[in-house]
Amino acid sequence: MPTPDRPLRSLGFLTIGLFDEHRPAEGHEATLRLIELGEQLGFDSAWLRHRHLQYGISSPLTVLAAAGQRTRRIALGTAVTPLGWENPLRYAEDLATVDVLSGGRLNPGVSIGVPAHYEDVKDALYPDSADREDFGYGRIERLLGLLRGDTASAFQGAEGIESYSPRVQPHVPGLAGRVWYGGGSLRSARWAGKHGLRLLTSNVVRAETGTEFDPNQHAQIRAFRAEHPEGERARVSQGLVVIPTDSATPAQRAKYRAYAAARHARTHTPQGPARLLFAPDLVGGADQLAELLYANASFREVDEVAFALPFTFEPEDYTQILTDLATRLGPLLGWKPAVN
Length: 340
Description:
Layout: E1 10-15, H1 24-40, E2 45-48, H2 60-70, E3 75-78, E4 81-82, H3 88-101, E5 106-107, E6 109-111, H4 118-125, H5 137-148, E7 157-159, E8 162-164, E9 180-182, H6 186-194, E10 198-201, E11 204-206, H7 213-227, E12 236-238, E13 242-244, H8 250-264, E14 276-278, E15 282-284, H9 286-294, H10 297-301, E16 304-308, H11 315-332
Parallel strand pairs: 1-2, 1-16, 2-3, 3-5, 4-6, 6-9, 9-10, 10-12, 13-15
Antiparallel strand pairs: 7-8, 11-14
């Protein structure tokens, strides 16, 4: 098995927290238990993905606030929050509050762009300003400025018995430096690097450098670091779907392979007008997965990952996958579990 240039420093996982429409509490509780298990296994981070108007977590920060009270060490992140759904001032307040409650463990991941199905949702989301909203990079610049302490109000001082601050409260020095940008294009990678953010890459990128997934993602990582003030030390996290089967039952192995096979056709060519490329889901024993990952040029560029859990599996499947990631695959990649 090949030896990495540097060992994997950080191992995380990502979930969307599915739930039954008629029993939502059970799904949210299962997600919280999964984060608790991740900490027990020594994972470095747990990430939640937004699912607006779906049967998945619509408010990751709220869930992470709860997770912060049930864990003490594991980093908690959003991967990613589409800022088109958020008011940067209000979201800055929420981020700062959850970070304080978690003891400084929050890693906000954000993206920009027009909200999905905007024509269908805009009247509910922005009834008075739908045609005037700016969904470009300026939205994240506003958020970053507010997190850094930029003036949010011209009023400061006392009014009766109440005191007012001109900046977001609570103010958390350093929180803006923990913001990650979820990008899948050369343009977004360069922008994130130039502005000193961290980069979250996923299993979806735009086809801009040929039609193979890995070369495109690799080019984006290189472009990001070329623009970043920290250069080669700039942090990048990769988020592929990786499913180890070492301790899986025969039924689980069959399920996992069927899941990956059903999604494999989309990996052959760029998809849709945006020419999106999808990485194949990786399924197999830890030895095989390590070989596949080390053959991936993008993986060799990073030293931290947040592997995405499949969307539709059962809690016992996620327990098996996380356990094998932490006890089988992670050590083969040079990773060492955190001490709880």
